[in-house]
Amino acid sequence: MEDKSMTGTLYLFSGFSITWIILFIYLFSMVKRQKSLEIQIEKISSKLEKVQNR
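^ thats the sequence. predicted structure below, dont judge the formating
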């Protein structure tokens, strides 16, 4: 009976760990995308200012 309990606990821990790893990978990719978008917005804004100042 104890073997089944340990196996269930192992599966629970594994699932919990995998879920957190996937969450952190997703959050890391979102942060990278946001930084990339901020850089693109800054470039577009500076180009727009140059065009408007002509």
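The first helix runs from residue 2 to 52.
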